[in-house]
Amino acid sequence: LRKGELELDHSKQLCFWKNIVIELTVAEFNLINCLARHPGVVKDRNQLMDAMYGDNIYVDDRTIDSHIKRLRKKFRQFDSSFSQIKTRYGLGYSWRE
């Protein structure tokens, strides 16, 4: 999957931003994949939890907020202007087109 500066290699579970490897957990990889696959589409916390963990695991919906915060931090270590993950207050999150 390639969306602008983002590249996800599903077979190796690797994430690249501007050709730099960003180390992600499996849950973070699944989260970024869910958002980037549908740029501009707002995903609510329940949709993101399903993409990250499947239907069999329950986690608090604020866990998503923590993952988003960590993802932004990881990407900003390599690109201080990273702003691809957009917060839609009261709705969820989306990947900027």
List the helices and strands and how they pair.
Layout: E1 2-3, E2 6-9, E3 14-17, E4 20-22, H1 26-37, H2 45-53, H3 62-76, E5 85-88, E6 92-95
Antiparallel strand pairs: 1-2, 2-3, 3-4, 5-6
Helix pairs in contact: 1-2
Structure characteristics:
97 residues; alpha+beta; 4-stranded antiparallel β-sheet; two-stranded antiparallel ribbon; 3 helices; 6 strands; 37% helix; globular
What is the share of helical residues? 25-40%
Cross-sheet strand order for the largest sheet: 1-2-3-4
Report the average pLDDT across residues: 92
The H-and-E topology, N to C, reads as: EEEEHHHEE
Helix vs. strand class: alpha+beta
Terminal residue distance: 14 Å
Proportion of residues in extended strands: 15-25%
**What value does the Rg take, in angstroms?**
13 Å
Outline: globular
Q: How many helical elements? A: 3
Oligomerization status of the protein chains: single chain
Give the biggest beta sheet.
4 strands, antiparallel
Q: Poorly predicted ranges (pLDDT <50, ≥5 residues)?
A: none
Write down how many β-strands occur, each being a DSSP E stretch of 2 or more residues. Answer: 6
Question: In words, what does this structure look like?
Answer:
It is a single chain. This protein has three helices and six strands, in the order ββββαααββ. By secondary structure, it is an alpha+beta fold. The protein has a four-stranded antiparallel beta sheet with strand order 1-2-3-4, with helices on one face. The longest helix has 15 residues, at 62-76. The model has no long low-confidence stretch (mean pLDDT 92).
